[in-house]
Amino acid sequence: MLDSLKVSIFIFSVALSIAILVPLTGVLVRYRANYNPKGLQLDPEGGAQPYTGPIIRSYFTMMGRVYRIEGIQGLYKGLMPTVFSTFVMASFVLVFLDAPKTTHHPYKAPDAGILGTLMYSILLMLMSLPTAILTYRAITTPYRLSYYNVVQSFRVLLTPTERRRPWTIYLTPGLLAAQVLHISIVVLGLGSLRRVLLPTIQASTVNVVIYVVLVALATMFLTPLEVIATRLAIQRNHASAEYNSVSQEIEGDTDNVPEYGNEEDVIGLRSEGDPYLGLIDCAKRIVDEEGWSTLYRAWWLTVLGGLVTMF
């Protein structure tokens, strides 16, 4: 009876977390993925013209825009891959690690030391990467995907190359590098410092202040990595650079798939015909095309995430 109650509480807590986090994550992904170049764009004839896509200045402005154009259903885009990923990861932890408390933080591992935590975190990242990519793409697509028509959703979100060779998504230029670097900073950097400065809940005020400052400094590196990872995750892999999104439409991948905003898109996306070529190339192009501030979109959420590790 007690075990059944624990399972019920666990399921309820996970469901509540998903209900709260899916809309917040969806807004964050859109905000960081929105392409907002600061210069003139070239039309097909080579002439210069001003950028006409949406210009979003803040996280909460994006939240309002999503609700206005797509409604509540739009806020819950990416729900099904999130539920699936949560189920798979929770099952993995419960079955193989017998530690349900570890599911509450993606970098929280069993007590195996810093290197053990690093390996554990990278393993979880590799397991969850496909569903994370599907989630990000489901959030940013203008199409209204069915919750249950998985085949149609795959055709919209994945290119023919990715459907024929699913492992291609792991080869997305720069994505794994961004993820591993992010995990390394969190685990090796902040994790090590937290163990030294905050070994117990009764840590001194001085140590707490020092750790908060270090979290703020780490944000200078973590937030750009998160923005870059978002951009790279939604960048689909094609057989060649010339095999662009127009070629996808010829195949009929989006035929008869309704859109949310027929006259206005929530965000602007960078052309797939000119993809980012890696981690460094993505960072350089973001700075050149959109400015430094783009790399620090919603930086305060990264700070809050870092402060949560204090507890």
TrEMBL record:
The keyword NAD does not apply. GO terms for biological process: nucleotide transport; transmembrane transport. The chain crosses the membrane at residues 6-29, 75-97, 117-136, 167-188, 208-229. It is a multi-pass membrane protein. Pfam families: Mito_carr. The keyword Membrane applies. GO terms for cellular component: membrane. InterPro entries: MCP_dom_sf, MCP_transmembrane, SLC25A32-like. It is found in: Membrane. Solcar repeats lie at residues 3-103. Keywords: Membrane, Repeat, Transmembrane, Transmembrane helix, Transport. Its main location: membrane. PROSITE patterns: SOLCAR (PS50920). Belongs to the mitochondrial carrier (TC 2.A.29) family. This is Mitochondrial carrier. It comes from Amanita muscaria (strain Koide BX008).
